[in-house]
Amino acid sequence: MINALGNDTDEIATNLTRGVAPGMRPRSGWLQGHPQAVLAGVDGELPAIPDDFAAHRSRNNQLLLAALAQIQPRVDEAIAQYGRDRVAVVLGTSTSGLDEGDAHVNLTLNGQESLSWQYPQQELGDPSRFLSHWLALDGPAFTLSTACSSSARAIISGRRLIEAGLADVAIVGGADTLSRMPINGFHSLESLSPTRCLPFGRDRSGITIRRRGRADAADPRTAACRAVGRRRVQRRVPYFRAASAR
After folding, report:
1. Domain 2-233 maps to which CATH number in 3.40.50.720, 3.40.980.10, 3.40.50.2000, 3.40.47.10?
2. Which terms in the GO cellular component ontology are assigned (predicted)?
């Protein structure tokens, strides 16, 4: 997990209990007609995407790689145990590489060449396609885009793939990155908070747009997917799909 609170789960947990969000602060250049807006971003260097994957080169996918690195040993173990065709990838995103597409449009309108942009970078299906190719997997791979509930639905869908016998392991999670289009869109709806937001708070005045990434590996040994044999699930855990008061 990586977000405005920190770059790994320990850092996130520490800052959460302290009420500190290092990556949530005023940022310039995102909100049209305003010098700054309070936005949540990820600080620190992200993994580079090599030239072999240039069609998938986006900050969104870099966040995925950063999150994947935290569970890489578990993923490698699952692939070795179950095989590449039995590992699914189900992710959620609302942005994918939209910011890269925005930069391409701006360069083109100003008569400049956009040498690094390729259309797949901004496709909503790209995160799961990229991660599946990165890991050389042959199992199911798809991306969900249902706004705030995208990653929650990805986790649910990964579990359902396991229950249906279509996969033995599902890599689930999601990533979103800052992009001018949704930021200005929410601002036009008067939804952005002028200060750090107060999720579920009585004095909440809006939302704070954020960057974050998360990856997890769900397999039959987890509490949510305790399998008997191959397909029958012994224990069911309830799930909820959405919360709008962020």
Report:
1. 3.40.47.10
2. cytosol
Number of CB atoms found within 10 A of residue 226's CB: 14
How sure is the predictor about 229, in pLDDT bands with cuts at 50, 70 and 90? very low
pTM of the model: 0.85
Give the pair of three-digit tokens for residue 130: 């990229």
Q: Where are the domains of the chain?
A: 2-233
- Amino acid 15: pLDDT: 96
| Percent above pLDDT 70 for the chain | 85
